[in-house]
């Protein structure tokens, strides 16, 4: 049997698939952060809590109201997005124009305020969320047996990421959003309601986090700490890709998911730190990130 550094080649395809699944979550979560920072200049540390809320809304909808997974994919992002819109209007808009550090501190506090009640009511143990019946089972791809649900997660995440990139980079709405970050007053002279656009953009970024939370619910346990356990890695992904870079968030998210999975095979002890090591290396060589633009 052929090996690489003592590792059988037969285990690599399965591990790559595992990396793609993790990379899917990294990509869609970092995309939401990149959208919010790139267009609003807000460092949204509440993103992890919004991801957790998406998973909990799906779990509660199924547990208490028998709302299935497919409806939860719509209901959870909508509910979390509406809450995020309210937070932006009531709190975040009040620090607009200030140093991004203020938004980091504010959203960090908001995240703790969201996480606290969930931990108090539901505890820190995980809650099981079943894979939808339509996606049960798996596919024998020859090199590995892959659950249907994980293939769906990869496809759904990639589709949402590409659609978001297209809207922001290739449509008139996206051009207005980008222009508003450069010259808000000029955009308002064309009759565009910039404050409303900013609020809806923050809501959309939070909805992306909630969508990822629903996708994660059948794979990981639904628990109040799931966002806090993930947010540091997601910020590292965003920094590596370039703060505010949409394409950087997508490409880096998937790539680092694969890198992390391969590290677990060849050097397991470094698997939990490899992304942060990459962040340090990138910041030393290219402080703006791989896809970022220097100020």
Termini separation (Å)? 51 Å
Helicity, in percent?
A: 55-70%
Strand content: under 5%
What is the strand arrangement across the widest sheet? Answer: 1-2
Shape: globular
In DSSP terms (H or I, runs of 4 or more residues), the helix count works out at: 11
Number of strands: 4
CATH class bucket? Mainly Alpha
Radius of gyration: 19 Å
The SSE string, one letter per element, is EEHHHHEEHHHHHHH
**CATH fold category name:** ABC transporter involved in vitamin B12 uptake, BtuC
User: Uncertain runs with pLDDT below 50, 5 residues or more?
Assistant: none
Mean pLDDT: 90
Tell me the structural class.
mainly alpha
**Main beta-sheet annotation:** 2 strands, antiparallel
CATH architecture: Orthogonal Bundle
> What is the domain tally?
1
Question: What key attributes describe this structure?
Answer:
about 300 residues; mainly alpha; ABC transporter involved in vitamin B12 uptake, BtuC; 11 helices; globular
